[in-house]
Structure formats: structure tokens, C-alpha cells
Amino acid sequence: MEIRKIGEKTILISTSKAKVVIWQNGVDLKKYEPDIILSGKFEGAFSINTPGEYETKEVWVLSMPMDVNEFDKNNIYVITADEIRIAFLGAGVKELTKKQIEKVGIIDVIICNLEGDLKLQLKNISEIDPQVLIPIGDSKEQLESISKELGIKAVEETKKYKLNYDEFQKDDYQLKLIKFID
Predict the structure, then answer these.
(1) What percent of the chain has pLDDT over 90?
(2) Fewest CB within 10 A of the end CB: N or C in the chain?
């Protein structure tokens, strides 16, 4: 599996069977040919814009609102593919309830939009307890603050983050922060 940033706030996840795009802004997706798109539409792609559980091309997606009274850009998506679980938290940060955290379950990688209330987002990240954190919409100051608050020792800078199931099977791990570079 590979994760990369293809726009300021757009992420492409390439699994063994599909390309999944988390679309947060106007990126031209034609050259990426996504199979699945979260929070947007693209001709020929399976679009997920409403709450529910979905499965296509060996990718399972749980889509739920951050706030039970609204469903828009403030979504939580949980993507399971290649035995890896990825969560995406949108920009409209609300404190996750215990029920939402239970439904999200064990997460290997969390991708989060850092616009909005950073303290609430950090609390949600801590509650979910991923092994890898990929922030988007971040600034140098936010990365420093996140690293300090979450006790992250090193930031890995990369154009593409390649991951596999085996790296998440360790009992002892330290949270790793991935910063995409252009």
C-alpha cells in the first residue's frame, strides 16, 4: 500500500486492488483514475458521500458523521484494505464519543486535517491511538506542536509513504509522523 498527497488537502491511497482518493479540494483527478472517492464525485469512481458501510474492489469503508446531526466535510472515514486500517478525520473537529471511538476500532494510520481546533484533534488522535499520523493542512508550527503534545521524536519526510501489514504487528511502537514534501 502507498499513501501520497496529490493536492493541498487531497490524499491518494493505492491498495493492491484499488485507488482511493480522499478529496478535499479541486484537484484534477483524471490522471489518477480513482476507483473510490470519499467526500466528492468523479465519473467512473465509486463515490461515498453518505453515512454507511461500503465494500468495493476489496476495500471496506465505514463512513460516519463527526456530529450525528450533520454530514458534510466533518466526516470520519475508516478504510480497510490489504489488512491495514486507516482513519480520516475531517476539518470540522468535534470531540469523538466513546461510541464513535469503539466503532472506529483499532487504527494503524490516521490522516487528519489540522484546520480547526487543534487541541480537540490531538485529543481524538490520542483516543484512537494510531501507529502512524499523517497530517494535512498543516504548518510548521502545528507540526512542532503536534510532535511536542504527542511525544513524537522524529518526523519522516517523504513524497510517498509505503506501508505493509507486517510493520503494524509490533506490540511496542512509537507514534510516527509522516510529512509529505513536494
Answers:
(1) 47
(2) C
